[in-house]
Write a structure and sequence with these properties.
Length: 314
């Protein structure tokens, strides 16, 4: 396992500011939301976060540098004996006393001398034989994270309208949707999970954007099929069109055909850049079952009508 400094690509003597800067860069690259199909990136993100948590904790970093805890924050061998990333940085390995002070055995001496030495150490630490030998209390664990699912109306997601989530405890919180929010996006609410000795866990809120009965999302744009009457299409007209912000007036050009796409600027979803996409309106000419219209077209059809399928070669 690479040591914690290597995980963050910083030197052993890096300052706290350097560690934080390195972590922000790596977290941005490895965040699970950006690497949904890359489990290795998610695993690396977890290791980088763990390294950051230890190295930005003054006490834990000192313990790690002295070789007392490993990369997972767990205690090492008795009195910090053994190698590892912290051994070289903390002034060498070897046995250490209860207060972290190094001591050595002389080359000669009787076995009883060694026994007396250990006995003195145990008395000084306040325990009986082997009481507390190599014992390091594990860091207190945070409480468990709690997952929630929040359904968001299509229009609210497009406008980034504030939402309210009710936690398992009955507590309600107002949350802001991030720009570029998509179905399945996760929002972390720090400290809103289960309680634990090391603090509360987090609440993980998964966003579920409700489908709309006539709007469709396409990236940051919104698609809408708009029926228009045959006279509005032929003669042109101003018609009311629904948008996520409310109805607006749209000019239908004279001589419009079904399939013509008109654009309403800034009526789409808010993208990650903070800019809103557009609403793309596809016209659908509604042809009525009308006897008078049919009679008119029967008389009109023979007057040099063009072939709309000519471009298809038929």
């Amino acid at each position: 396992m690479a040591d914690l400094y290597s995980q963050l690509n910083v030197a052993c003597g890096a300052s706290e500011a350097e560690i934080k800067k390195a972590y922000r860069k790596l977290a941005k690259e490895l965040h699970p939301d950006k690497n949904k199909d890359n489990p290795k990136a998610t695993e690396r993100f977890s290791k980088v976060t763990q390294a950051y948590d230890i190295l930005t904790d003054k006490d834990k970093r000192a313990q790690y540098d002295r070789g007392e805890i490993d990369e997972d924050g767990n205690p090492k061998m008795p009195f910090g004996y053994g190698g590892g990333p912290g051994a070289g940085r903390g002034g060498g390995g070897g046995f250490r006393g209860p207060n972290g002070e190094p001591f050595e055995f002389s080359g000669g001496g009787e076995a009883s001398d060694i026994s007396d030495l250990f006995e003195g150490l145990f008395r000084r630490s306040g325990g009986g034989p082997f009481s507390g030998f190599g014992r390091r209390s594990a860091p207190p664990q945070k409480g468990a994270d709690v997952a929630y699912r929040l359904e968001v109306p299509f229009e609210d997601a497009a406008r980034l309208s504030g939402q309210r989530v009710t936690l398992g405890s009955g507590k309600t919180l107002d949350i802001k949707l991030p720009p570029g929010v998509e179905d399945g996006a996760k929002i972390r609410l720090a400290g809103q999970g289960q309680p634990g000795a090391g603090g509360n866990g987090d609440a993980l809120v998964t966003i579920a954007i409700k489908p709309h009965r006539f709007f469709r999302r396409e990236g940051d744009n919104i698609r809408l099929d708009l029926p228009v009457s045959i006279d509005e299409a032929v003669l042109g007209a101003k018609v009311r069109v629904p948008t996520v912000d409310g109805a607006v007036m749209l000019s239908v050009p004279k001589g419009s055909s079904s399939g013509k796409v008109l654009r309403l600027k800034g009526k789409g979803f808010t993208g990650k850049n903070g800019q809103r996409g557009d609403q793309l309106v596809t016209l659908e000419v509604d042809v009525p079952d009308d006897a008078e219209l049919a009679s008119f077209l029967e008389g009109w059809s023979g007057r040099g009508k063009s072939n709309p399928r000519a471009a298809l070669g038929v």
